[in-house]
Amino acid sequence: MIDALVTSIVILLAWSFLYRENIFYRIGEALLVGLALAISVKVGLDVLFNRIYVPIVVKQQWLSPTLIAVALGLMMYTRFSKSLWWVSRWPIALLSGAGLGVAMKGAVMAQIVRQLDIGSLLTRDIFTGINNLILLVTAITSLAYFLYTFEHKGALAPVAKLGIYSMMICFGTTLGLFLMSNIGFAISLIPNLVRPPGLYVSIVAIILIIVDNFLGKK
């Protein structure tokens, strides 16, 4: 009962922005930011207690690899020191390099190497072969568009132009899927607003909109 009521109130607070900028939307926005911050602090404190305090202080595992992470984390706070700010560059560089390496490994294998796999065209299913051929052509033409070393003239010009069309189709499809997922999510929330106790909240919201329009005309 209480969960459904709170859910309905939060939904209408967020959707009130579709009507216009108002105090109710700002309240919902503040609640979201505050809740996200509270959860982040709670998770951070749990990590500090379970991963750092317990192993090092309680269990006295002084040679734990966790000390390396603690040292790197403390080094990042030297950013606030005027004389030791340069120390913070080392953990930031390490984290950036490790993150970039992991991202590049996954991106290159998933988005480039597997799409350029010629062996995927040799399949008994004709529709799968056609689909793989489209992926291969799209990948090659899109990469050709970003060949800034050569001017887009001659044989490269139509290939690069086809790459533009391929990317436009891809971006449009991605946007369409994004909108469909959001619309589906919004539709799934409507049942909360048409049955009690969410129905009562919806009635109050409709009355507030009518009163606001009536006062606005005056």
Task: Characterise this structure.
The chain is an all-alpha fold and 218 residues long. It has 2 domains: 1-85, no CATH class; 118-218, no CATH class. Helices cover 75% and strands 0% of the residues. It is built from 8 helices and no strands. It has helices at 2-15, 23-58, 66-76, 89-113, 126-145, 156-189, 191-194, 198-217. The longest helix is centred in the N-terminal third of the chain and has 36 residues, at 23-58. It is flat and about 65 Å long.
Q: What is the residue-mean pLDDT, rounded to a whole number?
A: 86
In N-to-C order, the SSE pattern is HHHHHHHH
- Structural class by helix and strand composition: mainly alpha
- Number of domains as seen in the coordinates: 2
Distance between the termini: 39 Å
Summarize the structure in short.
With 218 residues, this protein is an all-alpha fold.
Itemize the secondary structure elements and their pairings:
Blueprint: H1 2-15, H2 23-58, H3 66-76, H4 89-113, H5 126-145, H6 156-189, H7 191-194, H8 198-217
Helix pairs in contact: 1-2, 1-8, 3-4, 5-6
Characteristic key phrases:
218 residues; mainly alpha; flat; 75% helix
